[in-house]
Amino acid sequence: MASIAVPAVAQTQAPTITVIGPSLKDSEARLRACIARGCPPAEEIDAVLGHAEGQFVAGDYRGARETVRRGVSRNRKFAKTAPEPVADLLRADARIAGHLGFADKARQSMMASEGVLRGAFGETDARSIAGRIATADAWLSQRRFDAAMEGYRAAERLAGRAGNARLEGLALLRRASLDAQLSSARSGDGRPDSLRRLLERREPELAVFVNAARIVDARIQVAQGKTDAMEAIIAAARQDVGNEPLLLHMPVIVLDETGDRVVDKLAKRGAPPLTSAQTPLLKVATEGNWADFGFWVGPDGRVREAEMLRSGPKLSGEWPKLVVASLGGRRYAPTTAPADEPGFYRVERFTMTAPFTQETRSRIRVRSAERKLVRLDLTAPSQATASAN
Question: How far does CA 65 lie from the centroid of its chain?
Answer without folding.
Answer: 18
